[in-house]
Amino acid sequence: MLFKRVKPLDLILATAEKKALKRQLGPIQLTFLGIGAIIGTGIFVLTAEAGQKAGPGMMISFVIAAVVCALAALAYAELASMVPVAGSAYTYTYGVMGEGPAWVVGWALVLEYTIAASTVCVGWSGYMNGLLASHGLGLPEFLRAGPLDGGSFNLLAFLIGVVITLLLVLGTSKSAMVNTFLVLVKVIALTVFIVLALPRVQEANFHPFVPNGWGSPMGGIGVLGAAASIFFAYVGFDAVSTAAEETRNPNRNIPIGLIGSLGVCTVYYLLVSYGAIGAVGAQPVVGSDGAPLQPGTPAMAAACKGSDALVCSKEALAHALRLLGHNRWGDLVGAAASIALPSVILTMTYGQTRIFFTMARDGLLPGRLTAIHPRFHTPYVITLITGLFVSLFGALFPVGALADVTNSGTLFAFMMVAAGVLVLRVTQPDRPRSFRTPLAWLVCPLAVLGCLLLFLNLSLKTIVVFFAWAAIGLVVYFLYGHRKSHLANGTEPV
To answer: For 229, which DSSP code?
Structure first.
């Protein structure tokens, strides 16, 4: 029955118009929004995590993750141009497969957006703590990391989450202007790293190229395990689609923002990873049994104490430049990351609030969450609630564990979007599509298979967390959303 409770696309568009957000974003802002979401902890911090899992083979991991994301982006572009409203994969699934699957997708997107924002909070704190320590201003150890990472409470991760939340309450256009500036800072920092690292590349640092092999299902190690983790480096391009309801001419501008931001970031990632590996090396740290240690574990934290290895660093790119003797440039790249990474927190938190806003507007969450601030015209209630959880998760958990949990929800959502394109091609073939996924019957199945491959190469613990979270979501749905749904009751949002 849940699969039959489908909200027609025309009704989705009509509902959005009744309580709509102001359209004020253009194609350049959208592309910068996507770049701002993509370039962040994935490349600035998780380069070390990927190196621990795959060694120099992480370059292949970046390519695998980029291909899967590109396939998913083509599917996203078609649905976002057809349904230019807030809600991303949740809204698309509601209009194609029904309310039950839509709820599961929306619930999974909490892992993508909220946990992703928390992950970047931790990544930012690593750079900021390193920068402070280099000037003799470091915080006490127990305030520099969470309980699982050798500390007690990551104070800086918590504080940056709070600051970004307050900025989002102030307004979308203000946030977009700040985001554009921060994106430029990040791109300049990566360009500096590339220019300094590429001349120092040595062939010997690429051997052995795949020290941990290709990986095994639910092992979380090897090239595929690294690809499943480094997938986080590309997460965020779909945040462009969550801004559809606040976009001018969304049928044209959403595809530009999606594909343009992903293309720019892929080129930068390959150049940065090549420079980091070739210049300073990225061989994994192993335990007493000779097996590679899992990142984000107490054993890995203990093995890395006092080590200068790239895979042990919490500020990978700045650390690499310091190893090359560019201490001043390392500090400047660290400062740039400290300034610019908040743009990713901003984008991810923004995306989550818009998804919750849409779910509440559909009656699946309490209607009070859709309250708009009378002065700033933003959904301030859900923004404050989301920001609180972003800040707390960032204060308590390590970056690697958060990133993998984020990926599990993201990969599931991407699979549903790709499948939704094919369903609509069959059920509504004549519906206008301002952007059509090329070779859809090849691209979309490949997107589903690619996402499934990466999902199965996450660690067993991460997969268990995903299914436990999904089970909790189903309980919440049947206790509240199933009965309160506007579609089920024949009611409309206030």
So the answer is: H
